[in-house]
## 1
Amino acid sequence: MPKAADVQNMFNRISRRYDLMNRVMTLGIDKRWRRAAIRAAKVDPSTRALDVCCGTGDITFLLAEAGAEQVIGLDFSEGMLEQAGRRQAGYRDQAAADRIQFLQGDALALPFDDDSFDVITVSFGVRNVEDLALAFREFARVGRPGARIVCLEITRPKSRIANFFYDIWFDRIVPLMGAIISRDRAAYTYLPESTKAFPRPPQLAEVIRAAGIREVSWKRYGAGIVALHRGELPIEPVQETTTAASTGTERAAGAADTVEA
């Protein structure tokens, strides 16, 4: 995996065409996946939400539109945050946009106190962090008791046929699109490489649980190429005597590896 500074520079380079590339690359279906993430977050008017690796703010704005009282979008790319700020200035729902604050920061060292947020989201971002386990420990640290943790990420599909078309799309077509639309083939060659190295949904669920997050489950979307993980922080400290039973229940919940469009 490239060093953090290299990944940061890459996202700075592609930030201006990032949204357009996402729409073209996913044929616009990514909007449906993001709405599913918002439903999983269960936002209400008292929610204080953090969107980590927010990019240009797709999930950030949706959290605010869903009614969250305050939303913070955090990213380490200045270029992405610059685009997010431009969107915020002319956003269609200005009341929602006014409840958003964008900050530059590191997912591995979140600049917030413990127990600060009711919802923590990350979409298409944890694949790029150097220490996945540390990232989820940080999410758990800043979450309040009962906080919802929602992760949306690209993954390899389960079936051989889907994998065949997945490889053609991401290994050949997406880099070509990146060269034409973003004028950066290298950035969109990194995408399939990072996806191949990323844990599959069951393994990612174990990483999330190891961070102290409970009730972990996941669901696949888009013919299995995207996984939506959801978990909650315990309201009360987890007792050692109940850990084994709790883990067994959570594995059963996560085992329903279903697929939606």
## 2
Amino acid sequence: MPQIKSIEELQKIREQVKDMINLRVDNEKKIRVVVGMGTCGIAAGARPVMLAILDELKKRDITNVIVTETGCIGLCQYEPLVDVIQPDQPKVTYVNMNPDKAREV
């Protein structure tokens, strides 16, 4: 790690970290969509499901949603799985998803 040589450098780093923390707090207010992309999920069609979700969000200009992927959720017989997590709401899990269902969600 490089050595900080001035107060200005320290203040610059401080501002960068504050921006990162603010970004994380802002993200906590957004809806999260998590697609199970373990081997079983991919084999069951999770990749087209995720692409359909991303495409639909872009078409509708929805910006308050973060789409991420995760490994195996542990319910392989129900893959592809999609979790929708809204702030201050219980998590909702959708099972046996396909691109058409994903566009509706």
## 3
Amino acid sequence: MPSSHSGDDSSGLHTVGTKQEEDHDLEPVELTQSKVERPKSLPREIAFILIICMAQLMTQAGLGQVIAPLHIIGRSFGVEDSPAQLSWFPAAYSLTVGTFILIAGRLGDLYGHKKLFVAGFLWFALWTMLAGFAVYSNPVFFDCCRAFQGIGPAFLLPNGVAILGRAYEPGLRKQMAFSAFGAMAPSGFAFGAAISSLFAEFVWWPWGFWVMAMLCLLLGVASIFLIPHTPAPQFDNTHSFWVRADIAGCITGVSGLVLINFAWNQAPVVGWSNPYVGVLLIIGIILLGIFGQIEKRATFPLVPFSSMTPDLGFILGCVACGWAAFGIWVFYSWQFIEELRGVSPLLGAAQFSPTVISGCIAAFTTGSILHRVPGSVVMMIALGAFCIGSILVGTMPVSQTYWAQLFVSQVVMPWGMDMSFPAATLLLSNAMPRKHQGVAASLVNTIINYSISLALGFAGTIETHVNYGGKDVLRGYRGALYLGIGLAGLGVVLAMFFGLYEHRGSRKNKNHAEDAASSDDKERSPSE
């Protein structure tokens, strides 16, 4: 496979076709991204990888910090009996994480990934602190703070992944670095849930946010010293900032994604009969259509469709289905055990702790097999884990012991998270030019976080329509969880089609190689 980096090309994941070499002469070169020199000593390299991994950990901690004490937070605002209002607390955060990642990746490509990474932690700290102070206001202000809080991780994730992508050539070392990054997802969620539950039950829930804010501030300062210097890109001065940053694409793309997501998450609150919900949904779809047309004509598109191939589309589709199922699984698992089983937030955090151990094992197992196993196989295993984990929670009885299904689900689900994320990130990172590393990271993280937020809107709509006006809570939860099972199942089907497509491509390449070898033999025969 043509690779965007020199070096080892033996990875089993290096099966994704890319147009970057064919399109090289067609694309204007607006900047040249140089390689990031990774630290020479092992301790500094470990510290470097760890500080990058903290971006993933804190991002998922930001999700876990509201899902665990959700009803305690809702009680302080007087909305504890409104599931639709409560779902906005995590959804507002994932909405902006998913949408602003596209802009953050492009800005990182233009102005340096380290600068954007540090700024992300500082912004994260500011709005996490303000979210804690929202206790003195109302749930709308808290939702706004959560939305602005999500912009911090949106700057952290693509730029952190891009730094790793520029620091390592394709090979085992790069795979292990990306796997470590992926391992932080379940660990981060469990960390955020535990810290917030501890403060919510024994002190005051805003302290969970204030402690997180202080930690983000410390990490921002530490990243200044631990991340190697990332040389400034060299610009072609013939193009303006408007053109280089694809501002028109940013405005239409982000606006479209926000409006569509807002409509789906607001519908369970006010109902689809409210006219403005449908109007916003239609406007969002129109804006995304305009965004697609702009990207086709843009000199430097926000989403480089010229570098996209059908198999990358399969990969992103698998990621979308799997992580949408994860969003439903994690939200409604907590609602199930807290509302129906009467489990406290802190005990719930303890019950979710197996995800940390299982996630670490899954991540490093994935890192060790990625260079041997085709990407389609990795995706099929990951989506199978998402599907099995969703089925276990979606079918478990209320009075059942924790160890029968919920525990098994906690062990299985991280394999979906920690196989799909590093595999998809590596595939896109290796398939795109170095100058688009921020965009490559943005696409995967956009799909992951936007899918989580949008899926909560889908699930909330189903829940409110099948729970008989809130009288049958279990029926509502089951309906939402069945949607998660369906999405994960769709992902399995997509992964199977991806496998067939990949197998067909490998056979075609093998036949071409055999034909070329046969042709060479015929040319040599007369001379012999």
